């Protein structure tokens, strides 16, 4: 019996992604943040004071989802919106001191989780996996660009 690529690649990728989000959310619960919020905070810790559009691209979040995430992060004083001096219609998103403190606490914890997730996978296999993921992402980006043109 031949298993379709839809099932062997598509379904397996979705299943793995959901399980990864589930375990990360479980481990991030003591910090009162979700994986979605963590990805935005981590991105801001690396690229502070950027427009919401730039943040949306870097964190790979659509604008509506990002707005909701930013509202929650701002409510907890992890980020703040600052008037953009070069464009009065937009804001720059900045990480606050408490947001940086949280990032410093969560980052090593997150690394530890991923160390557990990749347990038993040798470096060579992991490198191949990362290379394949990158190629899949590039192919998907190309297909999306074709659809948008």
From TrEMBL:
Keyword line: DNA-binding, Transcription, Transcription regulation
> Has UniProt tagged this entry with the keyword Transcription?
yes
Top-rank taxon? Bacteria
Its signal peptide is: none
**Does Kinase count among this protein's keywords?**
no
Protein name in UniProt: MarR family transcriptional regulator
Q: Say which species the protein is native to.
A: Heyndrickxia shackletonii
Coiled-coil portions: none
HTH marR-type domain residues are 6-138
> What GO molecular function terms would the record report?
DNA binding; DNA-binding transcription factor activity
């Amino acid at each position: 019996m031949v298993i379709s690529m839809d099932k062997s690649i598509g379904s397996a990728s979705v299943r793995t992604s959901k399980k990864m989000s589930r375990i990360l959310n479980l481990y991030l619960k003591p910090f009162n943040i979700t994986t979605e919020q963590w990805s935005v905070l981590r991105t801001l810790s690396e690229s502070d004071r950027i427009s919401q559009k730039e943040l949306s691209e870097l964190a790979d979040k659509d604008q509506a989802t990002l707005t909701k995430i930013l509202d929650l992060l701002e409510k907890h004083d992890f980020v703040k919106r600052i008037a953009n001096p070069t464009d009065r219609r937009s804001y720059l998103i900045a990480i606050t001191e408490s947001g940086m403190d949280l990032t410093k606490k969560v980052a090593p914890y997150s690394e530890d989780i991923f160390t557990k997730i990749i347990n038993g996978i040798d470096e060579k296999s992991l490198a191949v996996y990362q290379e394949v993921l990158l190629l899949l992402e590039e192919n998907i980006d190309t297909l999306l660009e074709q659809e948008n043109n």
